[in-house]
């Protein structure tokens, strides 16, 4: 199955970001991708953390029909329409959905099937906090954490079934999340949209992603924000696709782009047979 990680340098303008996302989805679909994934906060990289509260949407459970007004859910509707228009699976990076707390939102990843139907929702569980004396981030100031690991299944155009586990950015540092995702059945692919800071990305981004691939013997696809944003924040980029042996299939440094890779189920099955580490787990 061919997949695409879409790298963006999102702005404070939602309409501009949605236009960019639609263009990149179209580009990936034209290149043969069956599944495309957008980065964390593809819809908005604001000037202040609180900006996301102003564009928060209520969750729309099903956008496949015509009953829902796109005026109330423009971001979710744009994703569903792009999936339907191009006949691809769209993993909608993240967008802010309202939470029960008026001054908080969920950082939510939405998945849409090729008919534009809502397939899965994952709310980011682990909230990032970093302070090195020069830069400080505290997602708990504006976010409500999720509490449920999420995976979904899809069938590709060749008739192969894939189990896809979901994570978001800082979740990458918590291997127990991905072990939880394999309790029911091993994941064939982990998709992890991110907006890693340049500082932490330089040190740990590829290292941690390759580790998650190796320890779970699965493919990893990680679309990222990659560049300097209007707020002055610099994100690391390096959107990447990795095979179950930890080998990098494709990567892009910084700047907008489409990272394409073909996932190989036969190679994955061979590796799992040669090294049945998932069958040898004794803890967790």
Task: Write up what this structure looks like.
With 284 residues, this protein is of the alpha/beta class. It is built from six helices and 15 strands. It has helices at 14-30, 51-54, 74-86, 175-181, 198-216, 265-274, and strands at 2-7, 35-37, 89-91, 95-98, 105-112, 118-123, 129-131, 136-138, 151-155, 161-166, 189-191, 219-222, 239-242, 248-252, 257-262. Strands 1, 2, 3, 4, 5, 6 and 15 form a seven-stranded mixed β-sheet that branches. Strands 9-10-11-12-13-14 form a six-stranded mixed β-sheet, with helices on one face. A two-stranded antiparallel sheet has the order 7-8. Strand 13 (239-242) and strand 14 form a beta hairpin. The chain is globular. The two termini are 31 Å apart. The relative contact order is 0.17. The model has no long low-confidence stretch (mean pLDDT 94).
């Amino acid at each position: 199955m061919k997949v695409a990680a879409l790298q963006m340098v999102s702005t404070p303008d939602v309409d501009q970001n949605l236009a960019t996302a639609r263009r990149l989805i179209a580009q990936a679909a034209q290149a043969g991708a069956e599944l495309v994934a957008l980065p964390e906060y593809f819809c908005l990289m604001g000037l202040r953390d609180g900006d996301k509260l102003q564009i928060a949407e209520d969750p729309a459970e099903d956008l496949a029909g015509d009953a829902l007004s796109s005026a109330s859910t423009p971001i979710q509707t744009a994703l569903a329409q792009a999936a339907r228009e191009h006949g691809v699976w769209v993993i909608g990076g993240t967008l802010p959905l309202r939470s029960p707390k008026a001054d908080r939102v969920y950082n939510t990843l939405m998945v849409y099937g090729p008919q534009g139907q809502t397939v899965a929702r994952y709310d980011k569980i682990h909230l990032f906090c970093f302070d090195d004396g020069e830069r400080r981030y505290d997602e708990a100031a504006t976010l409500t954490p999720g509490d449920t690991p999420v995976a979904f299944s899809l069938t590709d155009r060749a008739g192969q079934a894939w189990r896809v586990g979901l994570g978001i950015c800082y979740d990458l540092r918590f291997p127990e999340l991905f072990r939880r995702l394999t309790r029911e059945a091993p994941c064939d692919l982990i998709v992890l949209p991110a907006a890693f800071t340049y500082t932490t990305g330089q040190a740990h981004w590829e290292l941690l992603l390759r580790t998650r691939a190796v320890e779970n013997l699965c493919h990893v696809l990680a679309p990222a924000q990659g560049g300097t944003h209007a707020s002055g924040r610099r994100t690391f980029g390096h959107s990447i696709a990795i095979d179950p042996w930890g080998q990098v299939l494709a990567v892009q440094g910084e700047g907008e782009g489409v990272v394409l890779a073909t996932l190989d189920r036969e190679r994955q099955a061979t590796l799992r047979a040669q090294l049945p580490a998932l069958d040898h787990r004794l803890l967790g």
